[in-house]
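Lab notes, practical 5.
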Amino acid sequence: MRKVVDGKMYNTEKATLVGEYSYGGPGDFERIEEGLYVTQKGNWFLAGEGGAKTQYARQVEQNCWTGGEGITPLTRQEAFEWAQEHLDPDEYEEYFRDLIEEA
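Output from the prediction step:
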């Protein structure tokens, strides 16, 4: 998936996939699949797709929605927060060592 946002090209084929999250199944309006990526320049983004009741929904007619896909740029802090919520620490620890401390 590729998308230009604010003059920057985000491309899942050229970025590093840090981890993935999914919820729901085929036909589920709340189904969502997202991947957290980091570009070679250190820019973070989510690439995802989802059903008609997710942030990826798109309107096709008046009062008629369908699933869709998209790319959302993130700050490093937003990426860290998303990773903590959706991934195993083994998947993201190397990218955020400086933000993680022993309890």
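Observations recorded by the TA: The chain is about 15% helix and 45% strand. The beta strands are 2-5, 8-11, 16-23, 32-38, 44-50, 58-61, 64-66, 68-74.
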